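BUG: 3D viewer hangs when loading the predicted structure for this chain

Environment: internal workstation, default settings.
Expected: structure renders.
Actual: progress bar stalls at 90%.

Input used:
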Amino acid sequence: MYGYNDPTILFLHESEQTFSGRLAMKRNTCGCTAISFDLSKILAASATSSNINLQYFPIIWSVSKLPHDAYMLVSLKETIGGGALVVGMNGIVHINQRAHYSLSLNDFFVNDPEAAVQAPDKSQHTLFFDTVVYLFLSKSRVLFSLKNGDLYVLHIFPSGSSVRKLILTKAKTSVPASCVSFAHVN
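Structure tokens produced before the viewer hung:
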């Protein structure tokens, strides 16, 4: 993740497994945990013994009760809110250690009062982000390619150390992409 003194990794995990047939009983079962790696202590400990203690991996922050269908993290630079975008089939959630913001992609995004985030905004399109690939077009614009070939641009509007708004607009339709990359022409 960006903006930390030590290398920091954000893990997406599911504390209790669920599926769409059990959403009436269990929903918002995913979470994210940011763990820091103090390399100086790890290197010193590995030089003296092969047993590296868990105290060298402190948890910086965590968020629970994220949507059950979250499957991908997109790390953001601190100039546009920091943290990460949590991408799920039905919504996109921005998280960091201070604030959360979400964008509902369809009516299946569960707006639960017990959830970590509420969806103040709803996409103008009914979309399913079950298999997408992404590419940063600029610091605050992310291109998503959907499984049917549709291309959408996510505009991120930062406000200090959080995100104020997420807007998704359709760009074009192409062939379905398995990956996306910039091609620099000289």
